[in-house]
Design brief:
The chain is 48% helix and 17% strand. It is an alpha/beta fold and 165 residues long. The chain has a 5-stranded parallel sheet, sandwiched between helices. The longest helix has 24 residues. It is globular. This is AAA family ATPase.
């Protein structure tokens, strides 16, 4: 019987370094990296100008992404998903995705302070000016109000990274 691939996904406040860490994990695990930002930019290049539009279009691609990822996992390919797992509902989606194909998972929880995240966001605004509209302190605070740290009751395989560097 062929072994299943393993899914790696990420939880952390805006600016915690989820995208950066996803690239590192993908390289280390020799995994396919699937980025929500890339999928949204390819399919909806001009439609996302507000947080509500982001939610709308993110939900629109999820059935296709889920099917694609499950196909990869089923043939033994490791997958890193650079999609947020910042709420119980989002993590439940990932967990179900894995459960349906009997795949293992790791949730990487990047547990950084608000100050560290805001510092990373300010740096990113300079390095990637195309993100400046969303990479603001106001958006950070808006998004952070929905953030839910992973709990033991969720029964996830968590790798916790705690660093404010």
């Amino acid at each position: 019987m062929q072994s299943q691939g393993k899914l790696y996904f990420f939880c952390g406040k805006m600016g915690a370094g989820k995208s950066t860490q996803s690239r590192v994990v993908a390289a280390e695990k020799k995994a396919v990296l699937i980025s929500e930002d890339d999928w949204l930019a390819a399919h909806f290049p001009t439609q996302i100008t507000t947080f509500d539009e982001y939610i709308k279009y993110s939900n629109r691609i999820k059935p296709f992404v889920k099917s694609h990822v499950q196909s990869l996992l089923s043939i033994g390919v490791n997958v890193v998903m650079d999609f947020p797992a910042n709420t119980v509902k989002q993590r439940t989606w990932f967990k179900l995705l894995c459960h349906e194909v009997k795949s293992e998972h790791e949730l990487w929880y990047l547990d950084l302070s608000d100050e560290a995240c805001l510092s990373h966001i300010a740096k990113r605004r300079v390095e990637k000016p195309e993100r400046a509209m969303f990479d603001t302190e106001e958006v950070f605070h808006h998004v952070t109000q929905y953030f839910e740290a992973p709990a033991i009751s969720e029964q996830l395989n968590v790798v916790r990274v705690s660093s404010d560097t």
